Amino acid sequence: MTKEYDVVVVGAGIVGLAHAYHAHRRGLTVAVVDHFDRVAGASVQNFGHACITAQSGTALNYARAGRSHWLDLARTAGFWAVESGTHCVARHEDEYAVLEQFAELRGKEQVRLLGRTEVLDRLPIADTDVVGGMYLPLDVQVDPRAAAPAIARWLDSSGVDFFWRTAATSFAPGVVHTSRGELRAGTTFVTVNHDIDRLFPEYAERDALVRCRLHMLRATLPLDAPLPTPLFTGWSLLRYSGFENLPAVADVAARLQAEYPGYVELDLHQMYTPQPDGSILLGDTHVREITASPFQSEEGFQVLLTEARSLFGVDRIDVTERWQGIYCSAPGSEFLLEEPMDRVHIATVTTGIGMTTSMGLALANVDRALAPA
């Protein structure tokens, strides 16, 4: 096999598919190489939540730039997407102080503060300890199981060549060496998430890249009304870069550390996303290792269920699926973007915002790589 393309993308996760999409939109010939036989990994194991507003800096720019592309692709490729926004419930005064500071920083178009009564009118949660909340109207939701596979099918039907069950083994300017032979490439994008440590280990070691594994659940809950949007909690305020420099965040972190040291050890993020079939995705916890252990403690799942029962005021949760999500993580950074050799570009998201930022990241990366010299 020796074929020639304007662009070869190595990795058929959502970041790779986004690069293929933007190259295809330019009218270029595109090939995608992946060692799986279909879209797999973090791109189908996530919440399906384009968490735009809670980002900051470069990630926020990517998330905003990608929003319209998610909605366009949902119509074109045929997967469920909704401009749902995101709610966040505050169950302590220090959490509400963070929401107030965030609303002042971002303004009413991005953040709408809610009082206790309005939160309880909007959300099917228990009234215990609810102080208030906020609504982030610009966030988007997609079906995480369907979106990336649908994009791959649409790209394939539109003329992008996919080489499944094919491993990229090495690179040279203009050439991708694979387990099925050579592909000639004008430009190559290497978008293999945490597996970048197998192809370019020097960058993974430089940035202390690891695999972050998660406890996640799908369940049905006997709620009085459907959960209308993804739902953040106080734990979310410790998770996203948009909140981290707000003065009140330190108070939330100190209180949660004192009250729930075991949860802090699990690196809990308590959030929920409703799915088209009426189920809810519950998550998540975080353990970081170079080689991800295949074994998960039951403790993580029990914490997620205990907190969901408390938040929603239900006794019964019917779990239909449990899984271990894995994504790439590196301390102090959100992206690994390098050009290790001429016309070969690495693009890896090094925290759990790959779906949120993928479309905007790929747009900027393709524009930059293919700009006239």
Write the layout of secondary structure elements.
Layout: E1 2-10, H1 14-25, E2 30-33, E3 49-50, H2 57-78, E4 81-82, E5 86-90, H3 93-106, E6 112-115, H4 116-122, E7 132-136, E8 140-142, H5 147-157, E9 161-163, E10 168-172, E11 175-178, E12 181-190, H6 196-199, H7 201-206, E13 210-220, E14 231-232, H8 249-259, H9 261-266, E15 271-274, E16 280-283, E17 287-289, H10 298-312, E18 318-329, E19 335-341, E20 344-349, H11 354-369
Parallel strand pairs: 1-2, 1-12, 2-9, 5-14, 12-20
Antiparallel strand pairs: 3-8, 4-8, 5-7, 6-7, 10-11, 11-12, 13-16, 13-17, 13-18, 15-16, 19-20
Structure description:
This protein has 11 helices and 20 strands. The protein folds into 2 domains: about 180 residues, FAD/NAD(P)-binding domain; about 170 residues, D-Amino Acid Oxidase, Chain A, domain 2, CATH 3.30.9. The mean pLDDT is about 95. The protein is elongated and about 65 Å long. Strands 1, 2, 9, 10, 11, 12, 19 and 20 form an 8-stranded mixed β-sheet that branches. Strands 13, 15, 16, 17 and 18 form a 5-stranded antiparallel β-sheet that branches. Strand 15 and strand 16 form a beta hairpin. It is about 35% helix and about 30% strand. The protein has about 375 residues and is of the alpha+beta class.
